[in-house]
Amino acid sequence: MKKDLLKIKLKKIFKNHKLSKKHSEICSNYIVNAELFGASGHGLARLKMYCDRINKKLINPKPKIKIKKISSSISHIDADNSIGFVSADIAIKKAIENAQKTGIGLVGVKKSGHYGLSSFYAEQAVKKNLIVFCFTNAPPALAPYGSRKSLFGTNPICFGAPTGKTPFIFDASTTIMNRGKIRRASKLGLKIPYGVALNKNGKITTNAKEALKGTQLPIGGFKGSGLAWMVDILSGIFTGGSHSGKTKDPFDDFSGPQNMGHLFITINPKIFIGSKFISEMKKNIQIVKRLPKAKGFNEILYPGERKSKTFKKNNNKDIKIAPKILKEMEQLYAVK
Fold it and tell me: Computed from CA positions of residues 215, 217, 221, 225, in that sequence, does the dihedral angle turn out positive or negative?
């Protein structure tokens, strides 16, 4: 399907579910971009989930989002259980505004929901020539090191910096595989790679449904577990959002809103070295790229380059939609 047609359909679906025209457009853009970036686990595969939670009054389609100014640099947002795309979009824009005024922006969000890819928000800041960190917690998926029970989410860590061309954006979950990919594999009956998840009995599984009932494995063993814990503190405890395994799974737990927390930190790179930042970034990247290549590598890419190439490649192509997801879309489109 052509991306423009897909956006029109998605906007209608969200408007039919009582979102405003502006909020429908924000959500549609982020979902389509996830498909174009090749992150289908964060795209159309989640559309029905968002709509189900709106229908069950667990996502507020008409939120009264409150922005509390703490200082010229710091803001705290109560998202009123809005869809995560909307609250995070407001938050990153406020963090950018704060950093442009004072050199640094710190914005915490509480009472939000799943917001898609962190890199979406990082890219906005980087395009304004800012350094950025984005954190969000997530439903239980990862067992803390030494435990048999999942508690932390996949809790991604995202960092971005301007380079003068393709943004440097590192966006990675603290699990070996992000949960969106496992969810999509489960929906479509696909296998997952060996060694990324355990079933409920603690054995490695390639069955996506079994993985969702078990636990995902962290990157780097105890190091990944520690990073997931760090994100739980920053985006959960610090912001006033849910934490310690209390974030509700959007697909399976309809007992209440997710109350997710997000944290955005934006920094003007001119603070310490003035206008030299971009030129020093270019030197840094070139030094790495000129290193001898390991066997099987023709090029050393920095974080963000591969996704940028994927986006450019897919931008003028039709978006392929799995039949099961297309059927869900058509059903949601027909809702009045």
Answer: negative
Q: What is the per-residue pLDDT across 29-78, written as a single tens digit (0 to 9) for each?
A: 999 999 999 988 899 999 999 999 999 999 999 999 999 999 999 999 99
Residue 185 tokens, joined? 């594999």
Task: Look up the pTM and report it.
Answer: 0.92
Residues 6+ apart with CB under 8 A from 106: 73, 74, 75, 95, 98, 263, 264, 265
Q: Do 211 and 182 touch, CB atoms closer than 8 A?
A: yes
| Sign, Cα dihedral of 77, 129, 158, 48 | positive
Q: Kindly report the backbone phi and psi dihedral angles of residue 135, in degrees, each rounded to the nearest multiple of 5, phi listed first.
A: -135, 140
Give 81-115 as a DSSP string.
T--HHHHHHHHHHHHHHHHHHHSEEEEEEEEE---
Q: Which residue has the tokens 């780097």?
A: 220
Distance between CA atoms of 312 and 289, rounded to whole angstroms?
Answer: 21
Q: Which residues pair with 68 in a beta bridge?
A: 76
198: three-class secondary structure by DSSP: strand
